[in-house]
């Protein structure tokens, strides 16, 4: 999935002749995905913790 996203982005960037190297994409990916994943997982955890008492589980 990640590589597919990168390839589509590279295609778009190449079409407009913008020079961006793969290492720049990898650096951005390493900086963005882990915090986003943690934020999403914490949000899911607290949402489930909030909703479960109302379901009777």
Please explain how this structure is put together:
This protein has 57 residues and is mostly helical. It has one domain. The protein contains 2 helices and no strands. 0% of the residues are buried. The model has no long low-confidence stretch (mean pLDDT 83).
In short, what is this structure?
With 57 residues, this protein is mainly α. Helices cover 84% and strands 0% of the residues. The chain contains 2 helices and no strands.
Count the helices. How many? 2
Q: Compute the number of strand runs.
A: 0
The H/E string reads HH
How many domains make up the 3D coordinates? 1
Overall helicity: over 70%
- Mean pLDDT comes to 83
Give the quaternary arrangement of the chains.
single chain
Taking the sheet with the most strands, its summary is: none
Any descriptors?
elongated; 2 helices; 57 residues; mainly alpha; single chain
SSE topology:
Layout: H1 2-15, H2 22-55
């Amino acid at each position: 999935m990640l590589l597919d996203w990168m390839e589509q982005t590279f295609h778009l960037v190449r079409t407009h002749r913008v020079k961006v190297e793969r290492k720049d994409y990898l650096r951005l990916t390493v900086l963005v995905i882990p915090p986003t994943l943690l934020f999403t997982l914490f949000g899911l955890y607290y949402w489930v913790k909030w909703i479960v008492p109302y379901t009777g589980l």
